[in-house]
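Hello everyone,

My group is preparing for a crystallization screen and wants a predicted model to guide construct design. The compound we'll soak is magnesium ion. Before spending weeks at the bench, it would help to have a computed complex in hand. I've included the protein sequence and the ligand's SMILES below. Output in structure-token form would be ideal because that's what our pipeline reads.
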Amino acid sequence: MRLRTFTAPTLDDAITLVRDELGEEAVIVSTYQSRRGRGAQVTAALEESEDDGALAHTIAIEEAQAEPDDEIAQVLRFHRLDDALAHRIANEARALGRDDTVLALAGALGTHLSFTKLPSQSEMPVMVIGPPGVGKSVTVIKIAARAVLEGRRVHVLTTDTVRSGAYEQLAAMTGMMDVPLRATETPDDLVAALADIDDADLVLIDTPGCNPFSPSEIEDLKTFASAVTARQFLVLSAGGDAADVADATALFAAAGAEALHVTRLDCARRYGAIIAAALSGGLPIAEASATPFIANGLSSLNPVSLARLLNETAFKLAERKAERAAS
Ligand SMILES: Nc1nc2c(ncn2[C@@H]2O[C@H](COP(=O)(O)OP(=O)(O)OP(=O)(O)O)[C@@H](O)[C@H]2O)c(=O)[nH]1
Ligand SMILES: [Mg+2]
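Reply:
Good plan to model first. Here are the tokens for the complex, ready for your pipeline.
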């Protein structure tokens, strides 16, 4: 006996395909219809004749490549999560027995991911680290702005004396908030600058972009962080290849990052890299940014808001694609 699965827009169409291709002898063993009208699948069984070994081989390949019909797995694959992880999370979501896709996905995400907040006060200095250009300096300013609004005394230090304009970028914003700013070139300078601060609820340290795949850049980062026993918050930009971002996160986590802040949600549509990164680094997600603007620039994330974001983005783009195809 061989099994074959047919996919079509409706159940009737799928059954017609079964009859056309396998004939009246085929026995339908299972059917599935998407609740949101995204198609139907029928699996049919047929007694195998002795001479159709080649056909059986082709069918086996087709089946291996066939899209499973699970809606949550489809959402996760849309976000470019690798198949194995998408299936694991989808299976866990299904096992929760919830009808609502967002709540089921949130339940499964909640078992794998943890969520936290960026600090508004901290006894230890808070170092904002990450690859070049991901939004570290803007994140420093957003954290500072929120803490100032909450009435905290904030100082900003920067170890980015490398990129031209880096200090001026921070100075423009810290100046407006009356937040003291100082640049430090070496770990000893950083230690000395910290020793001079005695009235802060929060000291934020901005850092230059660090390529995690460069051992010497990671060593430099560790040297600065360990000189002042800083808490390290990793900033990553949404989007990008999930495997690359996951590798980078694991390296930053090994260097001491305690949480992950994701920027530029507004510039991406596929967010699997966020999940892959948090899992590979074993890091909690510390809020997200979806705007370059400073005021109210930090958004909290939790399993439900992340699940909603994943589901709605996938759903909206799928709808638009279908509309374009129909017009
Ligand atoms: N649209 C959007 N832009 C952002 C967001 N966060 C940061 N940006 C922009 O990204 C660009 C880079 O931000 P920076 O904060 O300078 O990045 P950085 O990581 O400090 O860069 P380097 O110091 O050069 O490594 C700037 O144009 C920011 O305005 C965001 O959430 N959404
Ligand atoms: Mg910067």
